[in-house]
Amino acid sequence: MSIHLLFNGYRLQMIPAYILWIISIITASLKSYQRPAITIRILKIMGLVIIIGISIALPSIFPVFKLPQPSGPYKVGTKDLHLILDRDEVITTDKTDKRALMIKVWYPSNESVGKQDPYIDEGGRHGFAQKYGLPNSAFNYLDKIETHVYRDINIAKEEFPVLIFSHGYNSKANSYYALLSEIVSHGYVVFAVNHTYESTGSTFPDGSEVYFNYQYAQEIESDTWHMMEPVVEAFNNDLTFEERHPIVKKGLTSYFVRDMEERWAMDVVDVVNQIDDWNSSGFFKGHLDFSNIGVFGHSRGGGAAGEALLTDNRIKAGANIDGVQWGRIVNTAFDDPFLYITADWPEDKEDLNSHAYINKSKDVFYEAKVLGTLHSNFMDIPYMIPVKTLSQAGAIDPDLAIEITSKVVTAFFDKHLKNKETDLKALDSNYDMLDLNIFIGDSIN
User: Fold this and answer.
1) Of 106, 93, 289, nearest to 192 (Cα)?
2) How far apart are CA 326 and CA 332, in angstroms?
3) Per-residue model confidence as pLDDT tens digits over 305-364
4) Of 103, 308, 393, 416, which has the fewest beta carbons less than 10 angstroms from its beta carbon?
5) pLDDT above 50 (res 51)
6) Residue 178 to residues 28, 184, 299, 401, 428: CA-CA distances in angstroms?
């Protein structure tokens, strides 16, 4: 995968080439009075073949898939929270707009009966359809997915550590059911933030839907690639790490994604600001352990998680799942425990995080690679689209990828938020597809 594709976030190939063919066939048929009969028959046959092909292909591309059953002792409940902030919305053109977030909360429960949570809300579905040029109805089949997550059931009568999750660029919290439900089933409350206008889509309480803002994305990215061209050249020219570092450092601190991750980190901090209030009254009263807060994310959300850990000392531990850590970390180190999980990228991929995390953590820094994975293996996409050339997933079995990732993340937070005697290195021995190293100061265990 090229560095440019990685920087611009995870993107699937545009699927609906079929639609163009159908339009062409219809157009040809409408003008059939100008054509010989043999041509009309050929067009009809071609149209029939294409329609049959679509009917065969679409169930393979968009199957009714099965998500893994959470393995922890708790059932998983969910509810949505609407958070209106006293912070200007910089993405819209209306100067009076204030930042507003939809948050999907996942929490442990002892109840096994309830209304099952539908897979991806309407705003998310319609945003996905817009992203890939498909009609909104293309994702109606998601109604048939069993999520193993239940809406508005009672939270278990205990106090739980709090995790805040940040999704990938032009994705959303609802795209991580397999990973998040598994972690929550082991005793965590996860506040998954939808970064408005930069998530695929959000559904607000009044029924309005807000999608990814492609115009804003183009504006902030326009004419910025020149900042990264020297970085690409530094890797391609086989410079030593020491020779390459100042060049990569400049790219990490100047490219436009730095501002995005800082903006998303502010969303995370704003959620942290509300946790005490949510714990004082309402549904979550008395169930949130405000003294043990962690943050994690995937892709650009992983970078935002690292930035949030640097920003807010109320957050005690953080994890980045396969995201580039843009910004100031290259000039400093974490004060708290940090986990970095990477996909099994090809050797010729530019490893920016080897430079970003040069100073690692003053506490403890875990570096894990899940072998056989690619970027989408940490999401639900390999379940949704089992065709690897479309999903851009690695060779690993999707269930195994989620199992390893969730166990590493859960063990990390168990150790640093629950103070459990957890040996993360033992996980490395249990899984052939996991390569995990632990750095404490300048030493490695």
Assistant:
1) 106
2) 12
3) 999 999 999 999 999 999 999 999 999 999 999 999 999 999 989 999 999 999 999 999
4) 103
5) no
6) 45, 10, 16, 10, 21
CA atoms within 13 A on the CB side of 321: 30
The span from the CA of 293 to the CA of 417, in Å, is 7
Cβ atoms of 303 and 323 closer than 8 Å: yes
pLDDT one-digit tens code per residue, 271-286: 999 999 999 999 999 9
71 CB-near residues (< 8 Å, 6+ apart): 182, 185
Cβ atoms of 213 and 200 within 8 Å: the answer is no
Residue with tokens 């949704």: 384
| 145-167 as b/e: b if 16+ CB within 10 A | bebbbbeebebbeebbbbbbbbb
Return the amino acid letter for 396: I
Residue at 37: amino acid letter: A
Cβ neighbours of residue 2 closer than 8 Å, sequence gap 6 or more: none
